[in-house]
Amino acid sequence: MPTTVNGVGTHYYGKKNRSARTAPCHSCHRVANLESYDTRLWFVVIFIPIIPLGRKRIIDACPFCRRHLAANADTYEQSKQLQISGSLEEYRRAASPESALKAHGQLLGFRDFEQAGQFRRNALERFPNHAGLRVGLASQLEHFAIYDEAPKLFEKGLALEPDMPEARVGVARWKMAAGDLAGARQLLDFLEAPGAGQHHALGPIDVLSGYYQRQGRHEEALELAQHLLRELPESGQRHAFRSFVRKSEKALGRKTTILPPIEGILRGFFRGDDSPFSPWKRRLLWAGLGVGLLAAGLFINNEYFRRHRTIRVVNACETPVQIKIDDEPPTSITGMGSLTVSEGRHRVQVSGPVEETLELDVIAGFFDRWFKKPAWILNPNAEAVLEEATIYYAEHPRPSYHRLIAGQSLVVRPQIDYLFEDPPQSVNIGSKNSEVTKTAIRWFQAEDDRAFLATLGTDRQGALTFAERRLRHKPDQSRLLTHYMGQALDGSAPRIEEFLKSGLDRKPVVVPWHRAYQSVAEMNGHDQGLAARYDGYLHSDPKSGALLYLRGRIEPDWASRVDLYRQAIAADPKLSWPWMALGAQAAAEARWDECLRCIRKAKELGIEEENLANLPHQARMATGEAKTLVNEYRTRLATDPTRFILLLQLCDALAASGQGERIMSEVAAWQNRLPAEVQSQIAGPLRALTLYQSGKFEECERLCRGIPALANSSLHVQTLLAMQKGKEVAADPSFEKNWEKPLISLALSLELSLEGQPEESARWRERAIKKFETATPLIRPVAKFLASSEPPALADLSRLQIEVDDKALLCAALADRFPAKRAEYQAAASRYNILRQPPYHLVSRAIQATSGSKP
User: At the topology level of CATH, where does 1-162 sit?
Assistant: First the structure.
């Protein structure tokens, strides 16, 4: 089956040409509605289809275990058309019950049950009195577990030809299943006639005897067994038949037996299914002979395996490591290598770029040395990521299962079929319905940040260990650092802070490392000692531009912070970080021209785009470059359609440049590149957001109301607020979950004030203040500004480290709260209100409010 890890892998999308039948699942054996359909297999990233892997025909998909058979849809369809059309053409050319049965069997085989049903009805109408046709159709239906029509067909065939053996056997089977053993025996009486075994298969009599025995009717069971013994004397030498007879004779307390004596006792051990002895007795004899003949040679072979075990080494440290096993001389290994040892406990010493000592048990069972391929893998410093796979080989194989192994210095597996070698495309599976399972391990070659994310979902602790080992050798991996630091929000903050703290003294200074440490220390409430720590670093190296920048990041005084950034630039003119920081400072004060100049300087000095986040978009929007951005985003989106953020930024730029009517067409063009299944999943939320950006509130509100996922969302709330329906929103209990977000409560408070509801506005403002007081450290200071009895200074507001749209909302709320400084706050709100996402339209309307009127 398709498999995804953290949204990356393979997935089916779409269902066409459906058919279904009720039958036992071939995997879990539960009776279910098994479905067959055409679909397409995709390689997906975040469940967005990226690479098509081909059309597939899914056969008998079980709704319980999700197992199914899969075939290439084109090959399947070609084979279906050729074989079915050939059979149907033969039937049309020379219609007969025989050709009808052949065509009907082909239709069922390809799961075309609807056409098979129509064909079956037509054939029965054409040959209404042909008993063989009805019995044959019934047999085919039974084979595919379609039991609703089979009994009637058997009964009709029996009515047409009462003496037809196949019809009598078919009806008898259903009577047996229904418990009517007397009726079944009456129908099978022709098999009890003397000499019947020479003309008919006596299997139905054997089955009937089993039903009698299970119902405790041992006399009848023995009567049938005695008849079988007369007709088929060789059955008396078979173990299964003898066990059956002995069970009934024991139940009846009989002292004599109808069974003949065993003939050729010694030869009987060498016979197969006809042997009078149980399989375990025969296997025991063969095993004894085999052990006796092979013991000496196998012991020597086993001892050789015990003394020559291979330890595979995967060195991802990028420099050679020295591996010493016990007291043997060290071996230098670069990349992948191997060592040979005897079984037992060994002390493994690793030296070179890393130093570690490990205890490794190389142990295998006596028989495992022949029948298994154990794997002992040494991963110095746990810096390599391994991929373990389970591969299924069958006529219609299941998809392989893959998992990543990270953060483990030793990996031991009792059985690995393909160790660091590619599994074959096919293997001999024996019979048609067999399945062969193989395992494989390979070195997962990928960038460290991708390997970390891929492993995180299945082995969190191993992923963290892997990231820590890799970062010690390559500490400047900013993307890996960002992803690693992000796990602090999921309960690993103390571990992450301690690890980052251990690398602070590394020279030269690695800025991303220190940035990550400062962020995690502040998250853990350990920011009190940060200033003293970095003052100490600067005392030892006062000319370090990196340290001056890092000291500025944690400086609480705004002016001193800017001064430290400028000192950093003077100390190291090639350092990009202080320019980015000055750009962020300028953005916080809505000095957008200066922000843009600093950002461009940072990019000129080589800062990575991802470190700038959304800052370039904000600055260029604020400085009137919306039209230019439209062309840039459209071009970039054409070459990289998977970057959803580019689409949102394009819509934002279109709305800001007065081209809101083009948003829908741009979104439609982008969506058309995606599969229909994906379009249906994202179309609603995306359209609702673009309708808000375009100012089409009524249409947006109707859409939100009609989509369950958006009905109670913050987007729906913001749309209603933009429509001046604050009182309606406040009274609607379905929006209750949104009031946990203080900024949504603050937006409602502002709208209620604009609607002339001062008391309600004040109540919701107090509610927002309480939520701000328990929020994250970054937005917690907002509570103090809102609760202040005096108008806060704009200089203090600008230094809040919150998003620009949130700062615009705060300024608009303060303008409403303090009429004496309304103009000043409204001007500030206007400078921050640059993004067309919520609450843009609410803030825009609040900015227009004057002391004497409300919009």
Answer: 1.25.40
